[in-house]
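quick one before i forget lol
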Amino acid sequence: MTPEKEKAIQLYERFYYATPSVLSEKNKDLTAKKCALIAVDEIIEAIDWHEFETPNKEIECFNKVKKEIEKL
């Protein structure tokens, strides 16, 4: 398993278990994915905003994490 896939699963699970249990499993799954994708977008934006040299490797890594979340 790649580090990006591990991070994707970690983010997804954190949001999945934070989602209210009154939702159906399908809705919990969709909500967790949406929240994880929002979190990754915020991370990418924060990295990209940095005034110094853009850490392209970091952005590339989180773009891969985003793709892995979408596959879940």
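fyi The chain has a mean pLDDT of 91.
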